[in-house]
Amino acid sequence: MAQFNVENSQSPPSGPGLTHHWPEALRQVAPVGPRLVGGTTFAGKSALDMAQIQILAQACLQGLDAARQVVFGWQRQGQSLEDIYLQGITPCARLLGEWWSADRLDFAMTTIASAHLQQLLHDFSSEFLQEAPRQPNGLSLLLLTEPGAQHSMGLFMLSEFFKRAGWTVTVGVPQDVAEFKRLFQSDWFDAAGISVSTDRHLDTLRTLLPQLRDNSDNLSLRVFVGGPMAFVAPERLQGLAAQVLAEDAPTTVTHITQAMLAAAVSAS
């Protein structure tokens, strides 16, 4: 997914019933006021800025309804759901992680806020898919997290962009290596993508992926890997018998789709 600069992020703003639950390190700093954005407009529909991303993070801490209202406000300002996904939800998830790493949020609060953020993707899925619909292209895709992954929001968002481009998509969040293998071999797929967040299973994947490709129903299966590791340590993903992609969701979809369609034309 796309990278965003959050070096100047501040602490989350306070909200009713929240402040007394925050860790002491968070309550000691001055919060940002709890303003919503429904009444303002963008000049030329400029990108969502860090102040508005903080507002979404605050809303996710307050509850799912509050988070939805922020998204509705952005839509009223003229932002498409694609803009909101890439310029709002993605950096908000990163910001929540930064606050947790800095001990400004505890694990429970971070988990709840992140769950609300991911639920937004599910809530707006139908609308997002209709925003720029395309005819089915006949291609099928398997998207998997690494075994035992704790987070799948980025993978789900990527799946939405592939669906909107006409792909048939299967998403899996395997709990262990055995389930990873089972999902990989569950059907015919034209391509498979794996999101790698940690280095826990790199050695396993390095051994496993060539075996799974050799035993696949599709001997021309195209495999790619991405996720956080592709951005922070792409060299660690070399040698996985897969193409490493460190691009945002739209670029990844365009890249893979064009390559697959070109290969189909060459083979015909």
Describe the structure concisely.
With 268 residues, this protein is of the alpha/beta class.
Description of the molecule:
- Strand 4 (222-226), helix 10 (228-232) and strand 5 (243-244) form a beta-alpha-beta unit.
- It contains eleven helices and five strands.
- With 268 residues, it is of the alpha/beta class.
- It has helices at 24-27, 50-62, 64-76, 81-101, 107-123, 125-131, 153-164, 177-184, 202-214, 228-232, 249-267, and strands at 140-145, 168-172, 191-195, 222-226, 243-244.
- The radius of gyration is 20 Å and the shape is globular.
- The longest helix is centred in the middle third of the chain and has 21 residues, at 81-101.
- The protein has a five-stranded parallel sheet, with helices on both faces.
What keyword list fits this structure?
alpha/beta, 268 residues
Biggest β-sheet description: 5 strands, parallel
Oligomer: single chain
Q: How big a fraction of the residues is strand? A: 5-15%
Mean pLDDT equals 83
Listing every helix as H and every strand as E from the N terminus to the C terminus, the arrangement reads: HHHHHHEHEHEHEHEH
Distance between the termini: 33 Å
Alpha-carbon Rg, integer = 20 Å
The dominant shape is globular
Contiguous low-pLDDT stretches (5 residues minimum) are: 1-44
Helical stretch tally: 11
Q: Which range best describes the helical content: under 10%, 10-25%, 25-40%, 40-55%, 55-70% or over 70%?
A: 40-55%
Structural class category? alpha/beta
Major sheet strand order: 2-1-3-4-5
Strand and helix map with partners:
Elements: H1 24-27, H2 50-62, H3 64-76, H4 81-101, H5 107-123, H6 125-131, E1 140-145, H7 153-164, E2 168-172, H8 177-184, E3 191-195, H9 202-214, E4 222-226, H10 228-232, E5 243-244, H11 249-267
Parallel strand pairs: 1-2, 1-3, 3-4, 4-5
Helix pairs in contact: 2-3, 2-4, 2-5, 4-5, 6-7, 7-11
